[in-house]
Amino acid sequence: SLRPHFLCRYCDRKFVRRPPKPIASVVSVNFKKNKMTPRIILLIFVLSLFSCTHKKGKTESVNLNQKQIDLIKDFAAKLTISINQYQYDFVRNAWDKNAFETKVVGLNEFEQSIFNRFYDKEISKNIENANIDLVNKLKYSNGKIILTNMRIFDNFVEATYSMIFDNGVDFCKYRIEIINEKPKLSDFYSFRDEIWQSQNVKNIIRLYSKHAQKKETYMSILNSEKALKMRDSLTALEYLYNIPPTNLTGNYLSIKKINLAQAINDSILAQVLVSEFETNKSIYIKYLYSHYFNDSTLLHEIYEKLGKEVGENNSALDSLKTERYLWK
Hints:
Layout: H1 6-9, H2 14-17, H3 24-27, H4 36-47, H5 66-84, H6 88-94, H7 97-101, H8 109-139, E1 144-152, E2 157-165, E3 168-179, E4 182-190, E5 195-196, H9 197-207, H10 211-229, H11 233-240, H12 252-264, H13 266-279, H14 283-292, H15 296-310, H16 315-321, E6 326-327
Parallel strand pairs: 3-6
Antiparallel strand pairs: 1-2, 2-3, 3-4, 4-5
Helix pairs in contact: 4-8, 4-10, 8-9, 10-11, 11-12, 12-13, 13-14, 14-15
């Protein structure tokens, strides 16, 4: 049976009495930013068996002056134009993989050796491709991107972008630094996943340096994918509940469960949403839950919190509030 016994736990919930809203297009999420599974998981598993030690260089942080801040602001505006005009080269050249590498910190010697062996071969390419995927997402869905918020820190700037496409919206954030006197992108934050990409990589490397957790998570994901290929979504969902939530950070596991539940039936989808809402306190999971169950009070709270992050004067957020657009 499904863990944690959904079918008997929530039979008296309000979704039994109140017709929910469909969220098929909400939870049909593109996971290209999280391509760490299952192919990359397997490669990490192999590399961890015979990785060697190699120290990574560090860069020193220097406080930004006003001229550099102005350069970054101009760069952030140009990035908006380049993405909207599908200028792949500008987006590709804006990313600095060496700067991103320095963000993955706090690994022990064994974890660092895995990361060093793995970074150039797979991780850096996947993250660069994620930036291109963002352009493709807008290009093939009649979308546009808007710079809606900027936060200036001592030695970097966080630029928040909002996207509107078809009947959906999404939000992301880039970290921009001055490297060799030029503004460069050095990290990426997904508001749906609620995690910086550097932290995501660090967590995955740490997980797969621990043999028992690595095997448990890898086998569960692999078996889930196999069941899905056999068109058995229920079994695929059951395998995901073998993974302790602490083994995977961000919202990947929760959204994966919701997607699979949607493919089974509305009853299980409702129960999975309730379960994830109770165990995962992220704003995106709260949004899926409140949208599905027509919880206008909770939706208002979500919009308030989201506005502080992505910018209050935001056409994408305004579109989301109309409920004709969905966060996806």
